[in-house]
Amino acid sequence: MYFNDISQLFDHIQDDLKKRGYYTRFPVRFIFLNDYSQIKALLDYYETSNVIIKDLTREIEIFQQNNDAWITINDILRIINIIKSSGEISFAIILLSEIVRFYKDNEFYSLFQSLLEIENSSNENLRRIYIPLVGIKARFDAIFWNKYIRKKEWDPLWEVNSNEKNYNLFLTDMQYDFKSFDNITLINNSLEYLNLYKKDYLNEKLIVTSNTINSLYANSIDYGIFQVKKNQYNKRFN
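The structure corresponding to this sequence follows.
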């Protein structure tokens, strides 16, 4: 389903709670956005709508010991099952797109298939699991949705119209005096990368020195709104 602006999405969230059939059986809703600024508006809405916001980096213990850790498919599904069993009515998972952006295509497909297989019990008809995804719609369609066998039976995809904002993301394992670079956002570890959505302003150029993110890079992956370049030698980052 397509929305001209985010206020139309807010209206539909309420309408969706009245639907039956597949819509009550399967609680996951993917919300496709093109800009991180829309995430802030969405989180503000959730805070006034009894939707619990869940940040995966706070739910997984490894980030308490290692700020350059990573989140696997099993981690994501385990945490969602724990949250479901806690009795929360509805919740939002923030921000899955930054994790799956670096998944290989087979991992990407496997995760989204598993998410759409999550079911409500008979007394949980109003439960929803909202998953905002920023700047990965084209890859989602190509790798997963176009191959999904149930796509004609229901529509768990919500897309909000907006201009797409793109970023240059430079990966490097070299250490420089980054203070000499103007208009960049420096990302030192995977935790900082996963928390990009919290920044009030994000430069169009991002330099990532995280060993984990560098190791996950694959030239064949579509990174969506990120133009990713592996840059180990060029100190100009342009």
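The beta strands are 2-3, 28-33, 52-55, 91-94, 129-134, 157-160, 167-171, 184-187, 205-208, 226-230.
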